[in-house]
Amino acid sequence: MPSHPRSPLLITTGEPAGIGPELVLMLAAQGRLPDRTLAVGDPDMLRQRAALLALDVEVVEAAPEEGVASSKGRLVVSPVWLEAPVSPGVLNPANARYVLNTLQVAVDACLQGRAAAMVTAPLHKGVIIEGGFANFTGHTEWLRDACGVDEVVMVLATDKALHAQARSWNGSGDLRVALVTTHLPLRDVADAITYERVQRVSRLLVEDLKRQFGIAEPRIAVCGLNPHAGEDGHLGREELEIITPALNALRAEGLAIQGPLPADTLFTPRHLAGVDAVLAMYHDQGLAVLKYAGFGQAANITLGLPLVRTSVDHGTALDLAGRGVADPSSLAVALNLACRLADQRAQSVHSGN
């Protein structure tokens, strides 16, 4: 069921011992939340964190369908209750289920048309696994399974590159980086890179750059897996046997895809000129460069879902939690992006595209 374009935007507050709850509170105190925003989390925990940080924020409980939204000094919360008490900076595996419950509430509201989009504050993968969810690997994969889709694409982008039709390289380091594989141990990456997966991820990336970013003919540059993109098979054969054949078939279909190119030279102005996104083979290959270029001013987008989901570009920062020194900039970028994407998606549904 499609949501109304002015349906609420939901923020899950993430790991309760981390900085997620206070980032949401900071934006509420500063009046920087979009006017249709609701948080999803434990209201009492948020009240306690606001008091600890001396933030003048009233926490109000309401469900998404009630039409009550946050404003400056006022945070509206769709309640999900903690499983155990929490202290800033101190992880408790007993709250693993709580974190996943906040995600489920947001997903259900989006799929049922009661919310326009969801934004996620950081969670802690390790404590969720320790809390009894051994197969958990991250937001991206959990959302894929919760929404019942076969493939999603994880994309991070710096702020300026998030705007529709912005080219990825404009001389200031603005980038969009997508990943073929996401949260895998490095020793498992090569086995996960298949001809079919490279093609599926590439097609999803191109499709959503058109649909969500308004880029008519997306241009993609693809990293190789191995040093020097395998150097003609002398440093690995994945490029010769998997990646290049997959990209050649996509090029034959008319997709504007370059590569595979050596990752250590692809992220330079000459190769990035006129490129709309870089497709990296694994997590740190692409995201280390992206975060160097714009850490704290970037957002994470999950493509391929039947809903809009964005997130911050950082983790739980347990060492900063409860101190009031965390920077909410990435959350603000993710929220503003979610609003734009939700509006674009609603317009696309309305126009029948």
TrEMBL record:
Q: Name one GO biological process term.
A: pyridoxal phosphate biosynthetic process
Give EC number(s), comma-separated. 1.1.1.262
Which residues are substrate-binding?
Answer: H139, T140, K291, N300, R309
Cofactor note as given: Binds 1 divalent metal cation per subunit. Can use ions such as Zn(2+), Mg(2+) or Co(2+).
Q: Which reaction does it catalyse?
A: 4-(phosphooxy)-L-threonine + NAD(+) = 3-amino-2-oxopropyl phosphate + CO2 + NADH
Q: Could you tell me the superkingdom of the organism this chain comes from?
A: Bacteria
Binding-site residues, a divalent metal cation: H183, H228, H283
Looking at its record, which EC class is this enzyme? oxidoreductase
> Which molecular function GO terms apply here?
4-hydroxythreonine-4-phosphate dehydrogenase activity; cobalt ion binding; magnesium ion binding; NAD binding; zinc ion binding
The family line of this record is:
Belongs to the PdxA family.
**Subunit architecture:** Homodimer.
Q: Which HAMAP family match?
A: PdxA
Query: In its UniProt entry, what is this protein called?
Result: 4-hydroxythreonine-4-phosphate dehydrogenase
Q: Which organism is it from?
A: Vreelandella nigrificans
Gene responsible for this protein: pdxA
